[in-house]
Specification:
By secondary structure, the chain is α/β, with parallel strands linked by helices. Helices cover 47% and strands 17% of the residues. The protein folds into two domains: 112 residues, 3-Layer(aba) Sandwich (Rossmann fold); 39 residues, Orthogonal Bundle (Arc Repressor Mutant, subunit A), CATH 1.10.10.60. It is built from eight helices and seven strands. The longest helix is centred in the C-terminal third of the chain and has 15 residues. GO terms for molecular function: sequence-specific DNA binding.
Length: 181
């Protein structure tokens, strides 16, 4: 099931430290006609970007050994026409802007569907993205934001509550619950 719109150079680097996701996306992208190299660390990705920069890349924002933005910068420096899509489990505006400033062409929240990744990689630079088929609920967006601030405050409940302008006990109740859909 190869996409007819794939360019001649179909090399794709996938960087993610979640092994099951990395394998699943790698297989799906190979089935769609890409020549996939899958790595799980910043160090491996940087080496690959310098030795054989790909035409396309899908990079996770947070990796065990560093920041995916460093990989994006290296890819862009090695090959300015590389089309990079940033993936993250923590979707927020600040990291999306940082990803685009580093050279990424798009930013997708995990878990990203392979078809969405292909659309993002092959999208025309001046095309507007389609609205998502299954957008996050307002409750989920709120929960993601709270989790992000909590993480940025080094899991300090009092500091997070102060920054979010909410009562500490309210925050503790929210943190104790499961993520909404």
């Amino acid at each position: 099931m190869s996409d007819p719109e794939l360019p001649e150079d179909k090399t794709l680097l996938i960087v993610d430290d979640d092994a099951p996701f990395l394998n699943r996306l790698g297989r799906a992208m190979t089935a769609r006609g890409f020549e996939v190299t899958a790595v799980s660390s910043v160090a491996e990705a940087m080496a690959q970007a310098r030795s054989a920069p790909p035409a396309f890349a899908v990079v996770d924002l947070r990796l065990d050994d560093g920041d995916g933005l460093d990989v994006v910068r290296t890819l862009y420096a090695s090959r300015p026409d590389c089309r990079v899509v940033m993936l993250t489990g923590y979707g927020n505006i600040a990291t999306a802007v940082a990803a685009v400033k580093s050279g990424a062409i798009d930013y997708l929240s995990k878990p990203a569907d392979a078809d969405d990744v292909v659309k993002a990689l092959l999208a025309s630079p001046d095309a507007k993205p389609e609205p998502p088929d299954n957008p996050m609920s307002a409750d989920r967006v709120r929960w993601e934001h709270i989790q992000r601030v909590f993480e940025l405050c080094d899991h300090n409940v009092s500091e997070t509550a102060r920054r979010l302008n909410m009562h500490r006990r309210t925050l503790q109740r929210i943190l104790a619950k499961r993520a909404p859909r």
